[in-house]
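Q: Okay, next protein. This is Barrier-to-autointegration factor-like protein from Hirondellea gigas. I've checked the sequence twice, so it should be correct. Can you predict the 3D structure?
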Amino acid sequence: MSTTSQKHRNFVAEPMADKPVTDLAGIGTVLGQRLKNKGFNEAYVVLGQFLILKKNKELFVDWMKDTAGSNTKQASDCHQCLSDWCEEFL
């Protein structure tokens, strides 16, 4: 089992509300701005895409690479963060 970052643990610890996209694990300032430019300005909007892709890691990672120019680790960290959040709150 891989370890999670403090950012990941903080995100999963509470409801999403209107958290910015940069609160997601794996999403820093640069990726956050790229996502915002594509209309994914809040974490819940990225969650919506995650759910549309049926929580599928491969599809989500490919989407993150295509949409925000992320690398595999960044996209995987974001996927795991959203997956863990869903387990906790959905």
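A: Here is a summary of the prediction. Helices lie at 6-12, 29-37, 43-52, 57-68, 72-89. The chain has one domain: 6-89.
Q: Noted. On to the next one.
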